[in-house]
Amino acid sequence: MNQLGHLKQFRSSVPRKRSMGRRKIEMKTIDKEPARLVTFAKRRVGLFNKANELSTLCGAEVVILLFSESGKVYSFGHPNVNSILDKFLVQNFLPEENVPKIMEESVQGTKNSQVVKHEIMTELLSKVGVEKKRGKALDQQREEETLLGGEWWQGPIEDLDLPKLNHLMLSIHGFIELAMAKANMLTLGTKNGCK
């Protein structure tokens, strides 16, 4: 018998250790810190790989920002993070007069651009907080008005007092903003070739 034959015979006589294979992971926070760190690192790489595949297959521009427990930031972007973030901020949140300034700073790649982005994100987060509070107040007001007998907005507009007119105008503006955001999202999805 040659060496290869002995090796095959030896392998067949040694019992194989069975692995646990792939199994479903329960979605909850991992308690043990070392295991949590390893899982974060592996899944971060997997997430970035999937984003890369999405951009390659669909021609989509992709950006991912991850903040670890320790506060470290990991990012992935195709073609690059800064260009996509600038595009997103310009299209969705920045007033027209700020567009040339932000684009110029982005091209220069200075730290000032990062500071401006941070300021914009901070401002946006504060606006989101204000809007959430306003939404809760409007929900409460709507509940109270329903209990008092009515959907006042269904009546003639001439019967509305100033607070109700203001409320109606805010609601209409909110609806228009939501419709525009949805239209933008659908337009971007169509441009990128993905649904």
Write the layout of secondary structure elements.
Blueprint: H1 3-13, H2 33-58, E1 62-67, E2 73-78, H3 81-92, H4 99-108, H5 111-147, H6 162-192
Antiparallel strand pairs: 1-2
Helix pairs in contact: 3-4, 4-5
Characterization of this structure:
Helix 4 (99-108) crosses helix 5. The chain is built from six helices and two strands. The mean pLDDT is 76. The protein is elongated, with a radius of gyration of 27 Å. It has three domains: 32-79, Transcription factor, MADS-box (SRF-like), CATH 3.40.1810; 82-150, no CATH class; 151-195. The chain is mainly α and 195 residues long. A two-stranded antiparallel sheet has the order 1-2. The chain starts with a helix and ends with a helix. Strand 1 (62-67) and strand 2 form a beta hairpin.
How much of the sequence lies in strands comes to 5-15%
Mean pLDDT: 76
Structural class computed from helices and strand pairing: mainly alpha
| Overall strand count | 2
Q: Judging from the principal axes of the Cα atoms, what is the shape? A: elongated
Lateral strand order in the biggest sheet: 1-2
Summarize the structure.
The protein is mostly helical. The protein contains six helices and two strands, in the order ααββαααα.
